[in-house]
Specification:
This protein has about 250 residues and is α/β, with parallel strands linked by helices. It contains seven helices and eight strands. The structure holds zinc ion.
């Protein structure tokens, strides 16, 4: 028997100017969301990246100190390919991130600094759907992102950040988690799909280090984008779960 058809997706709101993407690792954006970023930068929107770690524990055959440099360079290049010029690295320890006040403080500062309308993170549900478990860093970051967006708007939370040029920022309308199994929305990535593939390929040392025989980034992304596109009514699409940050939504 065929599995039941997943429900249709609503198009994401695109009436915004600035989005900040906050993820645990270099490569997180590129495994599914980079083509959406290329679409938005192509519309003239500003998109920035914040990497909580530098993915320095991500290549089995490369020690963290060397790996950090390699992966930061790959991330800057993969961002450039999709029109992103701002990539911040917060240098938190890869693989052992903890959800809590220290991470909220770091992320609130990023939100206050960049003043986005939308904050994007990766899936932070326990699974990717089915039995594939999510990774601990992704869950810690996603939860902290939601809290940090609220923290950023409250001048009495992390007030030491406001002693210089930073101001509170309560302007984030929504947080979006791409790749969530609870996704209700999607964005058409048909026209920018190739840029998304190139962006993933920029993580050459990382992909090499995975040691997956004959793994093809294009084929991998196409499989996901096509299934999501069927739910949105487009050739290709990327899926997002939407968390409204205002009251009364
Ligand atoms: Zn990751």
């Amino acid at each position: 028997m065929d599995a039941p058809m997943p429900p249709p997706l609503e198009p994401l709101d695109e009436t915004w100017d600035r989005a900040l993407c906050v993820v645990a690792h270099p490569d997180d954006m590129e495994f599914g969301a980079a083509a959406a970023v290329a679409r938005w930068t192509g519309q003239g929107k500003w998109v920035g990246y914040t990497m909580v770690t530098s993915g320095e524990a991500g290549i089995d055959g490369m020690a963290p100190d060397e790996c950090r440099t390699v992966r930061e360079a790959e991330q800057v290049e993969s961002a450039r390919i999709v029109g992103v010029d701002t990539v911040d690295f917060l240098h938190q320890p890869d693989g052992v991130l903890e959800y809590g006040v220290p991470m909220r403080r770091l992320l609130a500062a990023e939100v206050r600094r960049h003043r986005p309308d939308i904050v994007i993170t990766g899936n932070f549900r326990d699974t990717w759907g089915g039995r594939n478990l999510n990774q601990a860093d992704h869950i810690a970051v996603g939860k902290a992102v939601l809290d940090a967006v609220r923290d950023a708007g409250n001048r009495w939370v992390f007030p030491e950040q406001l002693e210089g040029e930073l101001e509170p920022w309560g302007g984030v309308r929504e947080v979006w988690a791409f790749g969530s199994p609870e996704s209700t929305h999607g964005v058409d990535t048909t026209d920018t799909f190739d840029a998304g593939v190139e962006s993933l390929k920029a993580h050459a040392a990382y992909i090499d280090g995975l040691g997956w025989e004959n793994w093809d980034p294009r084929e991998f992304l196409e499989g996901m984008a096509r299934g999501t596109g069927q739910r949105l009514g487009t050739a290709f699409a990327a899926p997002f779960e939407v968390f409204p940050m205002g009251w009364g939504d």
